[in-house]
Amino acid sequence: MSVIIKDVEKKSPAYKSGIKAGDTLVSLNGNIIMDVLDYRFYQNNEKIIAEIINSKGKVKKLKIKKGEYDEIGLVFDTYLMDEKRSCKNKCIFCFIDQLPKGLRESLYFKDDDSRLSFLFGNYITLTNITEHEIERIINMHISPINISVHTTNPELRVKIMTNKNAGKVLEVMRRFNDAGIKMNSQLVLCPGINDGDELRRSLDDLLALQNMECIAAVPVGLTKYREGLAELTPFNKDTAIAVLDIIDEYAEKSLQKYGERRIYGSDEFYLLAERKIPNADFYGDFLLLENGVGLWALLKHEAQEALSDIEQGSCDRHISIATGVDAYKLIREIADCCERKCNGLKCDVYAIKNNFFGEKITVAGLVTATDIYDQLKNTDLGDTLLIPSSMLRAEGDMFLDSITVDELSEKLNVNIKPIDCNGYDLVDGILGR
């Protein structure tokens, strides 16, 4: 495979070598360039021979000199230099299959791309990974790889993911482990399917891999849009307690074997079980935040640190915060601390019930503008309404229901300020700093 060069950065090593927009990149130092991983890996040399095909079809080999880790300076149509690879599974708990019709098109795309795992931390299932990719990960020592495992029982994994290739995951992970590739894994648990003894089996297998850095256990998320899909039961207090008991059991085994915990339950399991969420030092380096593991503890710790540096004062300020049901108690606690620090501050906090996706969905990141408006439209929100930036797409301008921040701000007649999901920015936002 070869890749067409869209542009060449001026004064870059590639520009000085004579490479032009419209040329096709074939290889670097004899290594065929298939995509961004090949390109980034093989450009890390001071002397490079780039084989290109120019716009007239002539093959040329051009010398490039640069600093070892400097960029060559080529620009391609897409970041990956290739199309994103979509998921070939039909998981019984897939959240995208539970979305209503009419949302923006990008929300329905299911990625399962090993390159995105390394570059952006995305989780992959390893069901559509090729032998070439496995060998490349090992040869380039691409690490860590984030893997959606769910179960290590081959027959059960095939059933859960509706993919005949799904049962090979442990075999591939053992190859990565033997090659020294670090891995993080995710287990989306469904009551009566892959919890209980099946969870114990998975943890036995995963903790046998010395290069398994950490394991996140997450409860299945069920929206109200499940017509025609597999019948699944949500977790309740008792089943959540049972999962946390197993996690604690295997965390102790991990501590004895590796000197570190390695297996964690998501914050949602603790809330469902009505158990106190551990303090920040419990979560080590917070490697599993994307799975909702340790978010509560980190936010609380950061807010406490931020408030410890603020002197007692006074202000005339009324604001509001909209958050999800899960986070309400903690956000209210932080708001109370801010009010005690600043006499005259009034901070109202609202737990937005998720009518859009269904009330079983309780995380802030899935709250829509429609629900915020419906539940706050007749409310005095003060000068500003704070929302977590996780409610918005990456560009920071639009909710999941395609309503923009500006549109909601106009409808509610209040300034809306998105806040990054950390305790320092939250305290600053509440105090107007």
Q: How would you describe the overall organization of this protein?
A:
This protein folds into three domains: 3-75, PDZ domain (Pdz3 Domain, Roll), CATH 2.30.42.10; 96-292, pyruvate-formate lyase- activating enzyme, CATH 3.80.30.10; 300-431, 3-Layer(aba) Sandwich (Rossmann fold). It is 33% helix and 19% strand. The chain contains 14 helices and 15 strands. It has helices spanning 13-17, 36-42, 114-120, 131-140, 154-161, 169-178, 196-207, 237-258, 267-273, 295-308, 328-341, 369-376, 405-412, 423-431; strands spanning 3-4, 7-8, 24-28, 31-32, 47-53, 59-65, 74-75, 145-148, 183-189, 212-219, 263-265, 313-324, 342-352, 384-388, 415-419. The strands form four sheets. Strands 1, 3, 4, 5 and 6 form a five-stranded antiparallel sheet that branches. A four-stranded parallel sheet has the order 8-9-10-11. It has a four-stranded parallel sheet with strand order 13-12-14-15, sandwiched between helices. Helix 10 runs parallel beside helix 11 (328-341) and helix 10 crosses helix 14 (423-431). The longest helix has 22 residues, at 237-258. The N and C termini lie far apart (53 Å). The mean pLDDT is 91.
